[in-house]
Amino acid sequence: MPKQVTRIGIIIDSTRPGRNGAAVTQWVYEVAKQRTANEFRLVDLIDYKLAHLDEVYPPARQGPTELDK
């Protein structure tokens, strides 16, 4: 029976401009892939059609919006 390999996705979760998560996630991926018992894959949320945030700051730090007035 073939040995089963655990597949693990390492997710880049930030989609904001100037995000730092990609560099950190790449570092984690480089360290993780040294482990041969598992298979690792980078998953970047920006590659998927989701409702992405494109604000420079999170909504909580941007102040009131038109909806709040």
Explain briefly what this protein structure is.
The protein has 69 residues and is α+β, with helices and mostly antiparallel strands. The chain has one helix spanning 21-32, and strands at 6-12, 38-44.
Distance between the termini: 64 Å
Residue-averaged pLDDT, rounded?
80
What fraction of residues sit in β-strands? 15-25%
Give me the count of strands. 2
Order of helices and strands: EHE
The gyration radius over C-alpha positions equals 17 Å
Q: Percent helix among the residues?
A: 10-25%
Which structural class fits the helix and strand makeup? Answer: alpha+beta
Largest sheet: 2 strands, parallel
Low-confidence stretches: none
Summarize the helices and strands and which ones pair or pack.
Elements: E1 6-12, H1 21-32, E2 38-44
Parallel strand pairs: 1-2
Q: Main attributes?
A:
69 residues, alpha+beta, two-stranded parallel sheet, 1 helix, 17% helix, elongated
Give an overview in words:
With 69 residues, the protein is α+β, with helices and mostly antiparallel strands. The chain is 17% helix and 20% strand. The chain has a two-stranded parallel sheet with strand order 1-2.
